[in-house]
Known about the structure:
The complex is a heterotrimer of chains A (about 50), B (about 475) and C (about 220).
Chain A: H1 12-16, H2 22-49
Chain B: H1 9-40, H2 51-82, H3 89-112, H4 120-125, H5 137-160, H6 165-181, H7 191-226, H8 230-251, H9 264-274, H10 277-300, H11 311-334, H12 338-344, H13 348-377, H14 387-421, H15 426-434, H16 436-465
Helix pairs in contact in B: 1-2, 1-3, 1-13, 1-16, 2-3, 2-5, 2-13, 3-5, 5-6, 6-7, 7-8, 7-10, 7-13, 8-9, 8-10, 10-11, 11-13, 13-14, 14-15, 14-16
Chain C: H1 10-39, H2 44-48, E1 63-70, E2 75-83, H3 94-110, E3 118-119, E4 122-123, H4 145-148, H5 154-163, H6 182-196
Helix pairs in contact in C: 3-6, 5-6
Bound molecules: protoporphyrin IX containing FE (HEM) (2 copies) and fe (ii) ion.
One protoporphyrin IX containing FE sits at the interface of chains B and C.
Amino acid sequence: MFEAFTDVVPSFFGWLNQGPLTLTIFLHTVIILPMIWIYFQEKKRLENEN
Amino acid sequence: MANNHLTSESKQLATWYFTFAAILFGAQLLFGLVAAIQYVMPGFLYEILDFSIARILHINALVVWMVFAMFGSVYWLLPDETGIETIGIKIGKLIYWVFVAAIVVVVLVYLLVQVGPADATTIWFITEGREYIEAPRWADWGIVVVALTFVANLFLTGIKGKQTGIVTVLMADMIAFAGLYLAGMFFTDNISVDQYWWWWVIHLWVEATWEVFVGAIAAYGLITMIGAHRKVVEMWLWIEVAMLFGSGILGLGHHYFWIGTPEYWWEIGALFSALEPLPLVAMFVHVLYDWGKTQGGEEARGSSASVIKNKPAFTWFVLNAFGNFLGAGIWGFFHTLPQVNLYTHGSQFTSAHGHLAFFGAYATILIGMMYIAVQGTNGIKIMKHTKASIWGVSMVTGGVVGMTVALTIAGYVQVLVSRAQMGATWAAYFDGQSGSWFTQAMDWRLILGAVTFSGFLLLAKDLLTTGKSPVHER
Amino acid sequence: MANKSVWSDNRFWQRSATWVTGFASVLLIWLTFDTSVQIAMGNDEDLKNGVTKRVPGPTVINYKITYEMDAKRGHEVPVIGEKENFFGRDDWSEEEAGALLHLGKLGSQAKNCMDCHTLLGNGAYYAPDLTKAWLDPAWGPNGAMQALTAKETKEEAMAEFLQHPDRYPTHARMMPDLGITAKEAKGLVAFLKHMSSIDTNGFPRNFGHMQGAINGK
Ligand code: HEM
Ligand code: HEM
Ligand SMILES: [Fe+2]
């Protein structure tokens, strides 16, 4: 699953790209996770509105 | 105009924008036909109006007519959404003429001067030679001024009037749309850097800002044409914005596989762009679902009347839902993984996708907006199809879909023969172009292009005359 | 309205859309900084010291370029080899080579090459991809073009063709005369040679390795 690093120039993103999907799964996770926080904030707001 | 039912100046300006857009659409198709003939008969207009010039006119007219129709759409819906007349409309009207004049000059220079010496004056006054944004630098600055005026009109009106979700989305979207143009306005000797930023304009326009624009227009159309609920429609709109920008912004990476950019773009480009079809599915479901729902509600009340207040416009909107999903979503996905794109990159396959995507995602809905404008201008309550509108939509759509099929077959041959078998050299290129599958596909593309153009003539006739037709309910 | 769901709440989606858009944009800008450094043009020092750049400096025209399979990376990469004459010299200075490349890049835009050809795979599909045109066997010692143009070297043959493409047609679909001067042609050839040295992650695949192997028709 983890492949040898073959990028011409090492970089942070290249380093995250350790094999199939690692980089993208990481980026998607950081994009989606905060939505959970937004969810609970909005839930609280809706409850308080009642 | 006699019998003009428009009281809003903003809507009047919208009709001007739509009119010039339709003229440019016709010009686009004519130059496309010239380029298509050159594939079949290479001597046609050789060294008079070469392929490069015909193609520049074809795709520049395409981009410009769409921008015109987009501006027109915003000027049209703004009074309805905000409840007030557009602020600064007088300057908006003046700027319209500046824009038209600039376009005419640029086109004449393309046609008559064509190319220049290899120096900065050519870049400033004749052509920048970068696909889609060939317009010379002076015109770039003109476009910046025009876009700023337009954005100012939109923002001032949006802030003063009622700020609906649709208007909010449009405000954010249009400023990004205008701002991105700046990324295409500089010269560099480094072609990798050049293409890196060039894609910011091309991709972030069509796969981010323009798509969100379509989401907003579709929302407006559903509310006005079938009386869908604003609350529901606007919720969908926000979901679409999240999905479109969430996938489309980093989906830009699918153009960074082979232009000198680092390897990590393979993964970012592949995966984010692979998600790009999702919002297009959502938009498709949304349009058809809302239609079914409102019609169903009507029938539950025991009425069999159609909920659609503008049949031709709604037809184009539904075609947009299909076309966007097929042309951008499916045809885009076909070649978006690097393993595939290594072979399809820059082939007729790209052209197949480009045609169905631009047509399906943008031409359709913008023509729909033109019909909405015809309805409003003529004070029509319920607008019906005419013979010309049905033949127009069928021939234009059938023609473009047919061209796409032909180009897809041509692309398949090119990918197999020129790329996979022969290794992409000059000789390999022409081996791929000369097989009978390829040449016949080019014949069919030309024939179906002619069908598209004939359909356009009917469409233009209908847009000009249907307003006075007795079939509509007033 | 006791149990209104967050999922059907417009504000939730609006905030999510704003977050997702903002964050994706920030990531793109970050990536752009990273990429910009990697695709900045190298210089003469790099070439002399054998430092590999994704986009080498303009003086790469003083060197022989080949396109070879790299076992580690699993695809072909441009390899910059020993010195080689370019229009009779192999000592083009940084300034001279830079000026030549500048002229060539301007020329490529002034003549709209991209509206018939693809460059790095982007552009029009009416004529061959120019990414590795410099390495095309047709221009090499065993190809037809040097003999056809009656020139002794690759660069002179290319320059001659670019000035008068209508005199050397090899297919019914011909390149037109674009009014390219001798000076501009030199710049354009430098531009093409430089482009062939860019590390394009293996595009195009198998370039020039399969000639005559299979009959494609
Ligand atoms: C309405 C939306 C879209 C439009 C109008 C559109 C249009 C285009 C056009 C015109 C090109 C060719 C650019 C050139 O001249 O080089 C292109 C290229 C491309 N598009 Fe799209 N596109 C859209 C959406 C998508 C989507 C959703 C995907 C992926 C799922 C996609 C994937 C691609 C890819 C991978 C290329 C590069 C082709 C190549 O390597 O030659 N597009 N697009
Ligand atoms: C009369 C019908 C049409 C004909 C004959 C036609 C023909 C052509 C030709 C010959 C090219 C050049 C492709 C190449 O470089 O090989 C082209 C490019 C293009 N056309 Fe059309 N076209 C037509 C209609 C349309 C329509 C309706 C649209 C979109 C709404 C469109 C959008 C484009 C785009 C985006 C490109 C650039 C594609 C790319 O670079 O991948 N065309 N067309
Ligand atoms: Fe894209």
